[in-house]
Amino acid sequence: MKPKVLLAGGTGYIGKYLSRVIEKDAELYALSKYPKPDKGSTEEITWLKSDIFNYENVVQSMAGMDVAVFYLDPTKNSAKLTQATARDLNLIAADNFGRAAAINQIKKLIYIPGSRHDNETMERLGAYGAPVERTNVEVKRPHINVELQTSKYDDVRTAMKMVLPKKWTLNQLVDYYSQWLDETKGTFVHTKKEDEDYIIYRKNSRKPLAIFKKKQTAEDIITLHLVGGKLAKPNLKKQGKLEFRLLKGTSLVMVHLYDYIPKLFWPIYYFIQAPIQGLLMRGFEIDCRIKHFQGRVQSGEKFKYTK
Predict the structure, then answer these.
(1) How far apart are alpha carbons 25 and 21 in whole angstroms?
(2) 156-298 topology per CATH
(3) Are 155 and 80 in contact (CB under 8 A)?
(4) How many CB atoms lie within 10 A of CB 95?
(5) Which Gene3D superfamilies does this one have (predicted)?
(6) pTM for the complete prediction?
(7) Are 74 and 143 contacting, i.e. CB atoms less than 8 angstroms apart?
(8) Between the CA of residue 214 and those of 76, 189, 193, 223, what are the distances in Å?
């Protein structure tokens, strides 16, 4: 019986090459958010509609597989607007692969090197116990992510990493984000928490800008699902998600916004709302960095704080 092999990046050059090489020796599957095989693709591939940056998608796609091959091309994104470094996106995808491989008891993860971040990618793939091998052949790829590109939907993806303050839990960080928005001058919003909902209002307004419902997606992954408010576009099957993910073995948290389709006219979102969102998240990241430093000082460490 042929082993089942899952390819990440099956729509790109490497995926097409690998599929031709091993199609006679394996049962091939490839994941893509928008599967659309072209004339150069082999007919022997089973295409799985799956977003490599979506944890639950990857876990489902990897079920029943024997081997999974990881290769991420930073020039091919699945969102119209992607505001994130290639390195941060790679960490999210590799973390998804590592977690999914451990859950589904994959026999082997294969990594195709060629990035300046090969070592940390290998570490992330194997962080949850799955065996990882790297190919002898390297495939060089660019280190700059593409921000704008054509997409089926006018969706947005942003990602950035920040430090988890010393002795904090991920749940404390998520709660503090709501508190920070409410108490920090210049955010122009106030917030409140009701059970598992975070509600954000514009200052001096009673109508919510956004309502987020908190969900514990997995161990060390908390996702805030956009379920209402002025920023939510009605009548969509998928609404935006703001994910907080602690990378195992580190104090780094990846904050990842995805599946968000702006309600505003696209140029207005791009030139006004997106920069404001970026400034708010950067301000929160700096505040967490300072709190982490303060926690280390309180624990007895002696050093000078530098950015």
Answers:
(1) 9
(2) Alpha-D-Glucose-1,6-Bisphosphate; Chain A, domain 4 (3.30.530)
(3) yes
(4) 25
(5) NAD(P)-binding Rossmann-like Domain
(6) 0.91
(7) yes
(8) 30, 19, 10, 6
